[in-house]
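Field reference: sequence -> structure
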Amino acid sequence: MATEVKVPTLGESVTEATIGEWLKQPGDPVKVDEPIASLETDKVAVEVPSPVAGVMGAQRGKVGDTVQVGTVIATIENGVAAGETTQVAPREAATAAAPAPAGGAQETEQAADIDRELDELPKAEPGDLAATLSPSVRRAVIEHGIDPTQVKGTGKDGRLTKEDVLAAAAAKKVSPAPSVSAPAPSPTQATAGERKTERVKMTRLRQTIARRLKGAQEEAALLTTFNDCDMSAVIEAREAYKDLFAKKHGIKLGFMSFFAKASCLALKDVPSINAQIEGDEIVYHDFVDISVAVSAPNGLVVPVVRDADKKSFAQIELDIADFGARAKEGTLTMDDMKGGTFTISNGGVFGSLMSTPIVNPPQAAVLGLHRIEDRPVARDGQVVIRPMMYVALTYDHRLIDGREAVTALKIIKEAIEDPMRMLIDL
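Structure field:
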């Protein structure tokens, strides 16, 4: 009996997704709650778990297809209810792995021959190579005439997978056979027309990023104000307390927590920076939820550090580190992205000296951080070398006046240059 696998609920207002990757192929054994596919939504990648244990059946969609919530995208053969165990016989698994013959009597005969060979295989003793082969792999070995001892396994503990067998079969087909070779092309012929192009469909996440950022430029009246920060005090504080901080909290003391807390001071003093426009109304927030721009494999994502104004330096650093790790793994959820009243984007980690970040709608402002470099500056009538960072605040001029934007950025600068201000709320 086949169990249908449907597209799960993807989050508030999200009704469709794109099939990003099939994690299981027809014939592969599947455990309860084991991911069989990865779906790409507007914001995150979502794994689709199997509701039962059994063998992967038909895939009802290709990579790149758009699917709706509730749509059946696959079936699980020989499935059992969650929590129960299942015993899938090699013969049954092999049958499930093989697609139904569609090429007439000759293909039916070939399939029957393979089935007979599988039935006639001697039972493998523990320790034998055959004992480690799954039913789908055994079938592929026989079907393609591959010697499993000559193929290096890439599965767990070096086990052979179906993909290993198929790759070996493909290599076998393209291996050069003795034949009369054609005359080698001349150097001119070989290099002519070598300018290649490649077309790759944009992921749903990249499409959403493009649409939202272009919409921000078209709708908001964006303006950027700049300043620079002397990072000496923050660097000295980190050097003095980094070991104690890491020992107590299990996380490194970074720059982001300093800028997050400094931003909280500015947003409390200049409420419009922490507000947003909804229709013909301005919505002010008495809390600070900071969206932190994080680089993920498929693009930029902005998970939210909630109530940053109430959190300690350590908790902010832990939240940001967790977001960064889960962004790389592709395990961020829709809830991680929802909300946010202000954004901090750190282009300095990639070497940026200066930039004009774009506001993340419906927010009204974004703070851009950049790389730290030693520069000559005037202090008390003397030219000295200081570790300096340019900071940029891009804001929606429909809501925020220039005076407010400059004031907010000045508060951030002063808090970074004198971190004591963050402790005594100045």
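Note: The longest strand covers residues 365-379.
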